[in-house]
Amino acid sequence: MKKIGILTSGGDAPGMNAAIRAVVRKSIYNGLEAYGIYQGYSGLINGNIKQLELGSVGDIIHRGGTMLRSARCEEFKTKEGQQKGIEQLKKFGIDALVVIGGDGSFMGAKALTEQGFPCIGVPATIDNDISGTQFTIGFDTALNTVLNAIDRIRDTASSHERTFIIEVMGRDAGDIALWSGLAGGAETILVPEEKYDMENIAERLHSGQKRGKKHSIIIVAEGVMSATEFAEELKKSINIETRVSVLGHIQRGGTPTGFDRVLASRLGARAVELLMEGKGGRTVGIEKDQIVDNDILSVLGQPRKFSSDMYDLSQVLSI
Ligand code: F6P
């Protein structure tokens, strides 16, 4: 193996650049050539590919987003699209690929591996929803961005004695809501993994009020419903003044935390090692501070185990 390709795909996540840097530098350190594929799988189909040198990835470790840019590509889900991608890989003489992204991006990696191009998936998404790893690249940064927002909103909530409903990202997974809600002292956390009871939420708010509690923070993962919908539902059960705040894409950007940079560096480097060992069709991850790898088939479409213990704790601590 002489040439490794790298692409980022799906929603961007802080730390993707640190992972790209690790893949490029680890490859060059080992006498391999590294090729950046721009705009994810659509760039692969279109041959938007350039060789990356050591300097190409200088001054990016601290930057959010992805220097390779990202895209969600419908065409690559088809056999024809994959064939076009393979032709481009052959044209550039690329022997193997590192795919940095989420579950959807790993589908492409699996398809390419099955067609003779070994791929390794590096989990990067703010949602922290990939199995085979305790943490995905970008989650820690997003968590801290959300916490920062919660802390600010809390100032206004307390000054004006209001209940704030804050909508965070997480289409299918509640980790951002759970972790930020627990760390931000939220009274109520709504996640797609757990059922909620509106009467019970209203009752808790009501008994809080009776104890003299003047403000509350409610975190809603977007996968449950929008914060506006929740505010309307809540109004039917309790008469309190609420305000809604949708954090949106600010959660995806920004300087990666130290944790995300280190995680990205370790996972990116391990991906190259696996390819050098002749392995493909695997994903890398972290479990109990050890870098691990798993068959991509065992990871795909498997929701990561939700921490019910943490959810229960959040209920206890928010009485
Ligand atoms: O990256 C995952 C995610 O942030 C989801 O939580 C969210 O629903 C989705 O991406 C939105 O992405 P986009 O606006 O890029 O389609």
Automatic annotation (TrEMBL):
One of its GO terms (cellular component) is 6-phosphofructokinase complex. Coiled coil: none annotated. It comes from the Bacteria. Catalyzes the phosphorylation of D-fructose 6-phosphate to fructose 1,6-bisphosphate by ATP, the first committing step of glycolysis. Mg(2+) binds at residue 103. This is ATP-dependent 6-phosphofructokinase. It comes from Lederbergia citri. The active site is at residue 127. Pfam families: PFK (PF00365). Its EC number is 2.7.1.11.
